[in-house]
Structure formats: structure tokens, C-alpha cells
Design goal:
Its cofactor is Zn(2+). The chain is α/β, with parallel strands linked by helices. 42% of the residues lie in helices and 13% in strands. A four-stranded mixed beta sheet has the order 1-2-4-3, sandwiched between helices. The protein starts with 21 loop residues before the first helix and ends in an 18-residue tail after the last helix.
Length: 198
């Protein structure tokens, strides 16, 4: 199963936001940050630190690069575990199993919305599922994590993959963004995962 967006609009629940200035430390040029989102990375499961060294900086840099040029928004990326993601997947998508990434778009009237553009949202990523998928595909976990961050951001930017044409456009956008971050094209690894990504 490919990563899926929940397509559920939820209210943000009081998570503090930071400015994209933190992206300067991640090596992004000011031109990218000027129009980028406020990006908060929450490490909800501390095991992420041992699995992906420098994980917060990697996720922030990837998210800001994926958002580049689409205008300001607030994005929170929570790195959690299968148990939490399974509970959210059951609640919001009626699927009582973990998945790799869930994307929740903020409502259109969220403060900070700009005319005609995405408002941002929350992206949740499950540690054990990401680790299993990366291992099955023979990819470094940090590359698979970067792919899922880009995937979630593209959902917030309006991309989807429910039909073949839109799925192909989304895959090409993912490959372009990841290429700029020196991450190999994830779709070249597809054959390594039976039935696609879980």
C-alpha cells in the first residue's frame, strides 16, 4: 500500500510553532525560507534519535525544501511509533493498523492562511513501519524518512495519488525534490518491496 493522506481536516491542538529561521541551521538558503512554512519537528518517540542521527534537522530541511515557493504555512511533523499511528489511522480512516505516514490538513480558516494557497497541517510518521519498509527496500532509513516527509508535504500542497495520472505526477515531484536533497529516486526501489510500500 502506498502512503496515504487521511484527507481529514482537523483543528491544530495547541502545538507551539517555531519560525522557519531554524532552516538556516539546516543549510537552506534565505530565498527558500522567505516563502516557506513555519516548521515544527516533534520527536514523540525518542528511539528516532538512535535510528536516524540528526533526525530533527533532516526532517526540517526536507520539509522546507519540499514546501519551497508555495507560500507561508504552519507545518508540524511528529515522529512517533506504530501504536500511535495505528490509533490515529483507526480513528480518522477506519483502518485499524499502522501506516507509514498520515497527513492532516488544517482547515481553510486557520490563522496564517494566505489567499489561494495551502494552509499547512500536521504530518505523523511511524518509526517501526518506516524501519520495516526501508529494510525491505534495501534503502537507508534516512532516505525513506525524507521520502515520506516530502510525500506528506506534497499532500498538503494539494497533490494526491488516487488515480494513475495524479500518482505519476506526485511520484515525479517527489523524485525531483529528493534529487535536490541528494536522496536517490525512491521509485527505483519499488521492486524491493512486495506490493509497494506498506
Amino acid at each position: 500500500m502506498e502512503p496515504r493522506s487521511s484527507q481529514t481536516r482537523v483543528e491544530p491542538d495547541g502545538v507551539p510553532r517555531k519560525t522557519p529561521a531554524a532552516g538556516l541551521a539546516a543549510g537552506l538558503p534565505p530565498s527558500v525560507l522567505r516563502d516557506g512554512p513555519e516548521c515544527e519537528v516533534i520527536i514523540a518517540d525518542a528511539r528516532w534519535h538512535g535510528v536516524v542521527p540528526g533526525v530533527a534537522a533532516l526532517v526540517r530541511r526536507t520539509a522546507l525544501a519540499a514546501w519551497a515557493g508555495t507560500g507561508p504555512a504552519a507545518v508540524t511533523i511528529a515522529l512517533d511509533n506504530d501504536r500511535t499511528i495505528r490509533r490515529l489511522n483507526a480513528r480518522h480512516r477506519d483502518r485499524n493498523k499502522p501506516t507509514n505516514v498520515l497527513t492532516f490538513e488544517y482547515p481553510g480558516d486557520y490563522p496564517g492562511e494566505h489567499a489561494g494557497g495551502p494552509t499547512g497541517g500536521d504530518i505523523m510518521i511511524a518509526l517501526e513501519t518506516v524501519r520495516r519498509e526501508a529494510q525491505a527496500a534495501g534503502r537507508p532509513i534516512r532516505h525513506h524518512l525524507a521520502h515520506l516527509v516530502v510525500h506528506g508535504i506534497l499532500h498538503l500542497r494539494g497533490h494526491d495519488h488516487h488515480q494513475a495520472g495524479e500518482a505519476r505526477r506526485m511520484e515525479m515531484a517527489e523524485a525531483r525534490i529528493l534529487g535536490r536533497l541528494s536522496v536517490p529516486n525512491p521509485w527505483k526501489y519499488r521492486a524491493g518491496i512486495a506490493g509497494g510500500e506498506q
